[in-house]
Design a protein that fits this description.
Radius of gyration: 21 Å
Number of strands: 17
CATH architecture of the largest domain: 2-Layer Sandwich
Distance between the termini: 47 Å
Number of helices: 15
Largest sheet: 7 strands, mixed
Number of domains: 4
CATH class of the largest domain: Alpha Beta
Length: 409
């Protein structure tokens, strides 16, 4: 019995293609719903691509479901999850599409709480999970009151943001006020239209046509090192998980570039409690901070597949195989990564081609997917003339290419 996965994305992250590769290498048939020219559309592991239209997202999703007839939908960004929940709300109870979404998400009606930064933190605290104090900030007057209660530095966050956007660390009251205004007030229609043209992204056009206010919260700042959980769940039970500390990241709040897999009872307990509480199914992630004493503090829930979930560390630590195995019991785990420290390509290589991390760790380069290898470089080095990647696994610490690629940008 085979398992068909529909990968759903509204953005152009290369990690989405690596999720597709994970399911394909686990023996699944993989199709994708994605914008034109998104990296996942070029992956050799994707058997069919369905066009995502940002001005007609639910129609795009319906058409992809009808043509692909998937067993599961795996959403790889928050907006894709929002579309799935909205489609569920439009469907008659018990319809085939509604059942598919329930199978893919678990409890779709729980996702309003999952995707609210404040509500999700309140739920976590009620479960006994260590979390920084998080307060709603409905207006500028409330911001002053919240700062008095939480103190500075603090972290301002807006709901419906991801990938490090919509998160600002503030250290002074004036900075906090400026950050709040930036997060709470949607860009003007003119600015949104300009962004839509400049970035060739019609989502900004949709924002210009129907702007929505942002929900902003403030969270107490916790000093420490980022950590995370990437997990697969099925009807509220965790079926596979990878826990890791972030050694290096893209900026202060950006995605990780170097991680180390860890066994952490606190992260494990928090992951299982939240999966059960929200009745989750599918791929998800949790972001933590590990303080100087080694304790972890939950910062937020990612209601979709995260970058750490692309990795395979063996049975129980291979999310694609674990989730697909819930549909097709004969799915086998992928070959396990044998080094607990992983460097994601191409961040560390671009910053320091001589880095010892490239030689002494697992360097996660998409050798098996040349178009994605090229996309990783083009997305990071826009002006590089990257053609065919030619490298050997023996020299994977120092990739070479047929046309020059700058080592630093």
């Amino acid at each position: 019995m085979s398992c068909k996965i529909l990968i759903s994305t509204t953005v152009s992250w290369t990690s989405t293609a690596r999720h597709a590769a994970g399911f394909a290498l686990a023996g699944c048939t993989v199709e994708a719903l994605a914008p034109a020219k998104a990296p996942v559309t070029m992956s050799r592991h994707v058997s069919a691509v369905h066009p995502y239209r940002s001005l007609a997202p639910l129609r795009s999703l319906r058409e992809a479901i009808r043509h692909a007839a998937p067993d599961l939908i795996v959403s790889c960004d928050d907006r894709a999850v929002q579309h799935l929940v909205r489609l569920y709300d439009c469907e008659p109870k018990g319809s085939s599409v509604a059942r598919l979404i329930e199978r893919s998400l678990g409890g779709p009606r729980e996702y309003a709480g999952v995707m609210s930064r404040q509500t999700s933190m309140e739920a976590a605290r009620s479960l006994g999970i260590r979390t920084p104090e998080t307060l709603p900030v409905p207006d500028e007057n409330a911001l002053e009151t919240c700062i008095d209660a939480i103190g500075l530095p603090a972290v301002l966050k807006s709901d419906g943001s991801w990938g490090g956007e919509g998160v600002i660390i503030v250290r002074e009251r004036d900075d906090a006020l400026a950050a709040y205004r930036r997060l709470a007030n949607r860009p003007s229609r003119l600015r949104s239209l300009a962004r839509a043209c400049r970035r060739n992204d019609a989502h900004y056009l949709a924002s210009a046509l129907a702007p929505r206010p942002s929900v902003v919260s403030i969270q107490k700042f916790v000093r420490g090192r980022p950590a995370a959980s990437a997990f697969a769940a099925w009807h509220g039970e965790v079926v596979g998980a990878v826990y890791y500390d972030v050694l290096k990241a893209d900026g202060t709040v950006g995605p990780p570039s170097v991680i180390r897999r860890v066994d952490c009872p606190e992260i494990d307990a928090a992951t299982k409690k939240l999966a059960r509480h929200f009745r989750l199914s599918g791929l998800h992630g949790l972001d933590f901070i590990r303080d100087d004493a080694g304790h972890v503090h939950l910062l937020e829930i990612n209601p979709r597949a995260t970058q750490g979930g692309t990795l395979a560390f063996g049975p129980g630590r291979d999310l694609a195989s674990a989730l697909a195995g819930c549909i097709s019991p004969d799915i086998e785990p992928r070959p396990a990564i044998r080094n607990d420290t992983v460097v994601f390509f191409p961040g560390e290589w671009l910053q320091d081609p001589a880095s010892s991390l490239l030689a002494n760790t697992h360097h996660e380069v998409p050798w098996d997917d040349p178009e994605i290898l090229r996309a990783c470089l083009q997305n990071t080095v826009p002006k590089a003339r990257v053609r065919t990647a030619t490298a050997t696994r023996k020299d994977s610490a120092k990739p070479t290419f047929s046309s020059p690629v700058p080592a630093k940008v």
